């Protein structure tokens, strides 16, 4: 019986975890997810419906590097991947990062990748990865489909 107690506890804990919920605000999806994420590694995917096919949209800025976004210098130096509880509402901006040539930027900024923000419209699908376990072993995907005007 002692061997079954940890398994029963885990089963009960999993059964009591609420399902994710979401709201849609101006140009963003806000998700309330109880679970865990891999800090520095998780990435939300956005797709647009083109004809009958979902096409991936680049809503990802590079990690561990420098870049310009809408003409502004940025640095993203996240370097410690760890499994952490999700303790906040997840906000997914409904945008695409379009890589552009760094024309018109100050000399030293031209050395970095350059992106511009473009707001998305039409039929969209948002996939948010998360984990129900504290070791980030069993990934779940929360999916939201919506029409953005």
Question: What does it look like?
Answer:
There is one protein chain. By secondary structure, this protein is mostly beta strands. It has one domain. The radius of gyration is 19 Å and the shape is globular. Strands 5-4-12-13 form a 4-stranded antiparallel β-sheet, with no helix packed on it. It is built from 1 helix and 13 strands; from the N terminus they run αβββββββββββββ. The chain has one helix at 4-16, and strands at residues 21-25, 28-32, 36-39, 45-50, 53-57, 65-69, 72-76, 82-85, 90-93, 95-100, 114-119, 122-131, 139-148. The termini are far apart. Mean pLDDT is 84; it is low at 8-14.
Quick summary of this structure?
With 149 residues, the protein is mainly beta.
Secondary structure blueprint with pairings:
Blueprint: H1 4-16, E1 21-25, E2 28-32, E3 36-39, E4 45-50, E5 53-57, E6 65-69, E7 72-76, E8 82-85, E9 90-93, E10 95-100, E11 114-119, E12 122-131, E13 139-148
Parallel strand pairs: 6-11
Antiparallel strand pairs: 1-2, 2-9, 3-8, 4-5, 4-12, 6-7, 10-11, 12-13
Number of separate structural domains:
1
Structural class: mainly beta
Helix percent band: under 10%
Q: In percent terms, what proportion of residues is strand?
A: over 45%
Radius of gyration equals 19 Å
Poorly predicted residue ranges: 8-14
Number of helical segments with 4 or more residues: 1
> What best-fitting shape do the alpha-carbon axes yield?
globular
Cross-sheet strand order for the largest sheet: 5-4-12-13
Q: N-to-C SSE series?
A: HEEEEEEEEEEEEE
